[in-house]
């Protein structure tokens, strides 16, 4: 199922972190809609290839969320391309993308590409620091980014990124109310089934990352909590 409009839940696995074969089997067989391979630091071609090959033993769709040009490889079902709308540095919104398309544009199968308009809201997370994101935003600021993603740039995905911390459900609710076409991804700090159910009731797709490495048993419960709603 490669239509993100039908997704409700995904696990994000970091190629720069260790995961046992037993844990990986449970994650891939959990009933989640997809595995997203991605992280903001230490992502290399070697660790991406290794994780892709291991996930490929299972039937679950597997997407690469591109964080640098060097680690892009064929073999994924989909490629998510983040564009950080609240970055103060144009490289993270369109600069690196321009370089990549200039160099590899001819090789790109555009049907496999899904652009994500990111709005990073946890100023302490690695992605915020890397991209110099302005996280000092009001609810109206965030809604404006969502409107830009959908109506100016026609991005298929708007990603509310609270990586490492649980977000504000009221902001997620307001953003969801604003979006008509664009799919709303929520990620950040989900470590229990209750949190997954809450954000799953507001966003279209819930992404669970760090909990996989911190408490796998609880992380696995997030799938049912979101999909049984
Ligand atoms: C041959 C072949 C297969 C060709 C395919 C062609 C293809 C896919 C081409 C892509 C072209 C293209 C436009 C590429 C874009 C290049 C690029 C480098 C864009 C920049 C992406 C970007 C803005 C990265 C910034 C960081 C970011 C937002 C990462 C997303 C992941 C994220 C937020 C992770 C969370 O952080 P984490 O690491 O988990 O943090 P903790 O460790 O603290 O948990
Ligand atoms: O790691 P967590 O905090 O679950 O966040 C998931 C994802 O949104 C990170 O890009
Ligand atoms: Mg992480």
From TrEMBL:
Q: In which pathway does it act?
A: Membrane lipid metabolism; glycerophospholipid metabolism
SUPFAM superfamilies the record matches = FMN-linked oxidoreductases
Protein EC:
2.5.1.n9
A Pfam family hit: PcrB
Check the record and name the InterPro entries matching this protein.
GGGP/HepGP_synthase_I, GGGP/HepGP_synthase_sf, GGGP_HepGP_synthase
The residues listed in the UniProt record as binding sn-glycerol 1-phosphate, with positions renumbered to this chain, are: 12, 159-164, 189, 209-210
Read off the Gene3D superfamilies from this record: FMN-linked oxidoreductases
Instruction: Sum up the protein's function in the record's words.
Output: Prenyltransferase that catalyzes in vivo the transfer of the heptaprenyl moiety of heptaprenyl pyrophosphate (HepPP; 35 carbon atoms) to the C3 hydroxyl of sn-glycerol-1-phosphate (G1P), producing heptaprenylglyceryl phosphate (HepGP). This reaction is an ether-bond-formation step in the biosynthesis of archaea-type G1P-based membrane lipids found in Bacillales.
What's the protein here called?
A: Heptaprenylglyceryl phosphate synthase
Species for this entry: Siminovitchia fordii
Instruction: Name the gene behind this protein.
Output: pcrB
